[in-house]
Design goal:
691 residues, alpha+beta, Methylamine Dehydrogenase, Chain H
Amino acid sequence: MPKRSITLYGPIPRHSKDRIVTIQFHPSGKFLGCQASDRTVELYRIRTHDEIRKKMARRQKRQKEKAEKRAKAVLAGGANGGVAMDAPADAPADADAEIRAGDEITQYQIIRTKTKVRSFDFAPVADVEKAGSVQILMSLNSNVLEVYNAALPSKKKSDEMPEPTKMYSVDLQGHRSDVRTLALSSDDELLCSASNTRNLTMRAFTLHITEYLDPQVILGTKAGELELYDIASSSLLEMIKAHEGPVWSLQVRPDKRGLVTGSADKDIKFWDFDMVEEEANRPKRLTLVHMRTLKMSDDVLCVRYSPDQNLIAVSLLDATVKVFYHDTLKFFLSLYGHKVNIWLITISSFRFRGLIPLPVLSMDISSDSTLLATSSADKNVKLWGLDFGDCHKSIFAHQESVMAVQFVWGTHYFFTVGKDRVVKYWDGDKFENIMKLDGHHGEVWALAIAKHGSFVVSGSHDRSIRVWERTEEQLFLEEEREKELEELYETTLSNQLEKTDLQDGEGTEVASAGKQTMETLKAGERIMEALDTGDEDKGAWEDYELLKSRGLNPAPPQRSPILAALGDVPADKYVLNTVEKIRANDLEEALLVLPFSKVISLIGYVDAWAKKTHHHQIVSNRMMRPMLDSIRFHLREQLKRHKDTMGYNLAALRYMRRDWENRNLAEFWDEDTQKEKEKDSAKRKFVTVTV
């Protein structure tokens, strides 16, 4: 029978009938929490050894009393003339003395919540007697955090156990849908985020683009309105009807005296900040004054100022980026290049390939106003020079659409986010990826960077906002590339190595189903390492025996540290133990990983294993003689056939050489043969040297 590492201890009764989601022990080891898929978390208490002994003594006493009652009833029935039945034998003492799971773990409390529980955790307090209670932090499906307090069990049975009480609750709902846009204050102390529904952190409302102007926040909505909110009071100050279509882009001017908005109504509007006094004896408040409008030929998707405020870049739905002078609004550059290859199929089944232009979804200008970075759904990021409008580089940045791009102030480094759930950090001068930030569970839509790149904020479709802080640790690009290659290898290995090359038709041999995975590759590497260790040890001992046979007295070879640590096991035993540890379903694919030289070495060990384990049975068994004769005959036939083939090929090559020498005046030059001759002559020279 194989040894079992895990044995059944026993069942524990539960109150809830739903499936278990999470089981967790308290840091003190005295309590156990069990989360079900409903709205409950059941708490269990771990009894001490004294409590278990007392419980078992009470159980044995009850069983003894029941046995005595049954015996008296049987005797009374026999005395009254009834049919006397044999008294049932008492349960064995060992069965009574066995500790069950229910004896050690008992139900303690049940915590019920208003909505389903997503996860829970105990407070990191090991000394619960000193704390006087057990605290549990619970995360609910309604995006609420609650802390419950469960009193310790009373030593007196007469005292009733109080129900768990809710101590704290963090009920700020946050975003109920994906986070679409982010904005940081000018001092990087406040963060504003907006979602696709009427929800905004710090109690704001429907919006698409946000920008801070301390201490107010300006929002552009899909209704074409600009909403101005006061941060301190979380109140709406003013609502301005700015566009006839959705406001897709908004940015404050570098001089902080106004802003620009772009909309689906094909208009770009420029606004100035002004102070207005609504009522007497009340402080003035901020408002917006419309100054001028720039008409475009298509929907405006993104608008960006150059930091020196000389240029303004506009992304249009027609897949172009127009660059204008800010002061005169005269046209300067037109950038075009984001495309995707696509097959178009007509009704007549004619198929042709075409390039479909894609609009720029996001763009940003470097702090020195020399580089413009654009991103699109073609998964690429393009870097443009703002002096002549030339494309410096087109970078394949993400596996899905690139949703946002932004430069780090004072550098040409920039960050990108995409629908592939990844945040990436790039060098805009060397056009290489510096690092990749994984963590989001959904498409990443929004990006915000601190003034000098001390931290980065990303918002995702998974309704989470992640803050990435810059550390002082050194980063080596070679190591990052190696990590990416390893991850790529692991993720694509299963798809690439699946056995899907079977073809229909006669003569197709159906092999066993299987595929190479990281486990099979690691198993193959372990076999190769074991073979190297065994061959090294085996070769050392063979040299030792050879020297002894020549009459020399060599020192015994030093064993491998691995073999010595395992108790000086022989080399063939070590290789056998390594192969035995590999799972049977992985062994075939692991052997296919081995190179031919290792296969020869492994066959030598297989021969040694067979001689040690089954040599006598093979020699004494008559039934195996025809099989061994057949193997010998076929092996010799195959060797003879290969020998004849090689001899025929060598004769043909010699004939071709003689024919070439007869037809040509130059001497035939064989580099390998010449090297062998030089080695032989060098060896002969070394031998003939006398001292």
